[in-house]
User: Fold this.
Amino acid sequence: MDILFVVPYPELEPVVQEVYRDYPEKDKVTVEFKVMTVDMVRQYKMEREYDVLVGRNFTFEELKRQYPTKPVINIPITGYDIVQALYEAKKMYHCRKVGIVGRFFHMYQYEHMEEITGVKISYHPVDQGHDLEYCVAEAVSQGCDCIIGGYSAYLYLKNSRTDLPVVTIKVSRETIFNVLEEAVHIAEEVKKEKEKSELFRIITQISNAGIFYVNDKGQIEIANREARKLFPNVQTLLGGGLI
Assistant:
């Protein structure tokens, strides 16, 4: 079983490797770790077949778009992760107001995050209509003196000419462990399905009986050689004909 684990930022790679080394069921799977941004994922050509893919945020969405038939697991960004990034920004840069740039699903809690951290927050979601450049400019126009976000936001600001400080939202070891566990579980299920499919294929090919496979819509999807001998017209029903 093979898993591709796209590590969201370079500093996380040794942590992920360590979690994997300590993972009790690591012998069940082969995990390949690659540090890639969403742009790198768009250009990436798989060197081998993977059973499960893992990514975070935009990388997760890009993996789903490129490989729609494969299971893809998201590395979640929790409210705790965002709060930790806010504390880091406050400690390192003494920020008065922080712009959170990205697409996060815990931002309905941002009022509570302000109370907890003592830092003013504005949220600037990146989507198809608003890119990173737009969202950062919007945050600055609203008085933000620091940005927190994913690794793409970090790279954008580091490569731009602005001195605006930026903090990457980190992932906890516990999250990595949970994601790895989920990936292994799904890879096992994928393996079982492949084995069942292969067994079914062998049985249908060597059987002397005519065998049909009919889906839940009553459509014939598979008919073996003997079935085609018995019903010569079955070929016209394959792939959508009703039985």
Observations:
- The mean pLDDT is 85.
- The chain has nine helices and ten strands.
